[in-house]
Amino acid sequence: MLPPSPLILQEEREEDVEEDCKLNVKKNSGTIKSIPESNSTFNFHPNTRPFPMEIHIQGFDMTHFGSRVLAMSRPTLYATSHYGQGKSVIIFVPNRKAMRSIVKDLSNFRQESDPNRNFLKVSQESLAPHLAHVSNKGLKESLSLGIAFYHEGLDQKEKKVATNLFTKGAVQIFVCVFELCWELEFTSHLVIVMGTQYYDGREHRHCDYQVTDVLQMIGRCKGEGKEDNCGKCVLFCFGPKKEYYKKFLHDPLPIESQLDQTLADTLNAEIVAKTIEGKQDCVDYLTWTFMYRRLPQNPNYYDLEGNSNNHISDHLSDLIERNLGYLEESKCIAVDELDVQPLNLGMIASFYNIRYSTIEIFSSSLKSKTKLKGIIEILASAAEFDCIPLRQGEDKILRKLGAHLPMKIEKPNYHSHLTKINVLLQSHFSRKTLTADLQADEGVVSEHSIRLIQAMVDVISSFSWLQPALAAMELSQMVTQATWDSDSVLRQVPHFDEKVLAKCKAMDVDSVFGILEMEDDQRNSLGLSDKQMQDVARFCNRYPNIELDHQISSHVVKSGESVEVVVNLTREMEEDEELTPVVAPFYPREKVEGWWLLIGDQKSNSLLSIKRITLQRETKTKLEFSAPEAGDYDLKLYFMCDSYAGCDQEFDIKLRVEPEEEAMEE
User: Fold this and answer.
1) Over residues 171-186, mean pLDDT
2) CA dihedral 407, 411, 416, 419 (to 10 degrees)
3) Contact at 8 Å (CB) between 35 and 313?
4) Please, what's the b/e burial string for 494-519 (b: 16 or more CB within 10 A of its CB; e: otherwise)?
5) pTM of the predicted structure, to 2 decimals
6) What beta strand segments (E) does 301-360 contain?
């Protein structure tokens, strides 16, 4: 057991905090007469809010989730007209299916002659310019009826149109998936929460919303009347949960720490940063956390047997020993009695901000002969993808997509994250048309994949394997440009579909530079509009054209001697031109171009040296490695891009390694 000395020090800190709290209460005594002695945040009664609010809670006893949500439809329509009274209404629904259902019911319920049921507050002529920016047919139709909806499948422009029309008062109804309640920055006169459960694909059951999510939804309520500024909130829930929500919506809500669930990753980052260098430092670190404050207040939540100093000290000791053991087993740190030291894998995990379990999977699964298919499977198993939801009935769609994948999945389980991520990655490379939900998931997967691939390259480099490293670098290009490694490099050019590619092939144009050299009549024959040709020109002008020059310190060295390769890189660009982000229409975020320089031996599949660089206009760098055993080597210098396909370069390097005596004689 670790010594409890830090705990005694912490008690002194708590006394100082208590004194500060007393001073703060006295200073504000004119406003707040009394504050209950509690270590939790407070949910004030709706009547004491700055903007008063009425809460109506109605329970539904149907045990079947779908039937229960369906039964909430008619009361929702009644609440919209009775409590809304022509003012703004936000409706939170558990999923997209419920959203489609309630939008359809609201459309049928609408009556232009009734002011409480006419949801469109402007003329169709005024609405038309805004609808021109909406490509989603369902959203365009519902907006014309005064109903906006908001889910993760909409692009940013459509989300902005929907929110602007609602906040400006053009449409009265705003239907939103509960998961996006934290994105809403506006309020409404009436808030309706249609159910408080959602389907969790990992547990294959319907789970309750977190109370914080319910509070956030209710917090969107704000009265709009001049005389009666009291907002209205209607909460529909499962019958047995009615009393539960009555209690937690009015009583203080305890906020508990989740640090113990991610403590291993936190400790790894602090060990790499040298903030923690021993087990005693771990205890000192934890005494400054919110979790430490909550341990004596709610010991049962943290599985403590008591709230005394000895119980807390034993718990912290066990917690630290267990998590340090996880890191040691994954080879992220080295533990020497009471001291801890970071290892290479731990540094990689900390640098790329990925979980230790992911780096452990990479380290144990990657092999010297791992090819592209295996790398995709290993990437799909990363713990960072646990945030991707598994929706009810989604396995049927994934099964159809999985039947037509270029790389077949062995023993697929369409109810698992591993299979879903694999399907989404291959669908991304094939540019398949997906549902709105899967399209949103695909964007998250491709966004996370880049840093995971970069970490994978570093893990492979620590084993000095050449071919897996090259395959991972090509995978980075595939994720960025949504192409397969076997596709034509012209497929990454915007608007270049199969028809345009066929025309380019007929004209013997097989590279991006070939497009720049085409005559005007040849470009016109591609059948692209002027706007599309502008996108093509922007891509071609941004496509990297880099000249590489290298020099080796000596072509004849002795075994074990240091070999230096100096590399000069010059980008062809105008003097006043600035480097812009990567042109990648299928990548969800703005991306900065990156490069790898590496030297390897294809014959032995060995990676001798590697360096990751960013290149603006020109740069000079140096690669170093120790000469291998005696013999003649045909080495390769690779210059690999992480964003564009077809711009990689490789150069031959002849190296003769002689035994030490022969090299000295020469």
Assistant:
1) 93
2) 0
3) no
4) bbbeeebbeebeeeebeebebbeeee
5) 0.83
6) 333-336, 339-342
